[in-house]
Amino acid sequence: MTIQNSQAQIEVVPSASTLIIEALKEPPRDRKKQKNMKHSGNITFDEIVNIARQMQQQSLARQLSGTIKEILGTAQSVGYNVDGHHPHVIIDNINSGGVECPAS
């Protein structure tokens, strides 16, 4: 929400988990009929970077690499793999310098 000249503008930004599910093009599910849904799939690291760029304004991370780690954590909690690997393995590779993150 931004206020400029006494005019309020509201932006609705989807959550990270919604963006991850949309990136895999899964059909929407009714949570009322089906409880404790498990997702499974494989998402590319480039899609994670694109989602991180969209979410960077709402993130508390100072750099894009921190936002990428947040999105990878969300992918882990949703149940997705990234390029065939568990998301926490990729987070460890980013911390050790094995995976290069874009600067911005």
Automatic annotation (TrEMBL):
A GO BP annotation: translation
One Pfam family linked to the record: Ribosomal_L11
Key words of the record: Ribonucleoprotein, Ribosomal protein
Domain Large ribosomal subunit protein uL11 C-terminal residues, every copy: 13-82
GO cellular component, one term: cytosolic large ribosomal subunit
InterPro entries the UniProt entry points to: Ribosomal_uL11, Ribosomal_uL11_C, Ribosomal_uL11_C_sf, Ribosomal_uL11_CS
Ribosomal protein as UniProt keyword: yes
Single annotated GO MF: structural constituent of ribosome
Main function: Component of the large ribosomal subunit. The ribosome is a large ribonucleoprotein complex responsible for the synthesis of proteins in the cell. Binds directly to 26S ribosomal RNA.
Quaternary structure annotation from Swiss-Prot or TrEMBL: Component of the large ribosomal subunit. Mature ribosomes consist of a small (40S) and a large (60S) subunit. The 40S subunit contains about 33 different proteins and 1 molecule of RNA (18S). The 60S subunit contains about 49 different proteins and 3 molecules of RNA (28S, 5.8S and 5S).
Family under the similarity heading: Belongs to the universal ribosomal protein uL11 family.
Protein's name in the database: Large ribosomal subunit protein uL11
Species of the source: Zalophus californianus (California sealion)
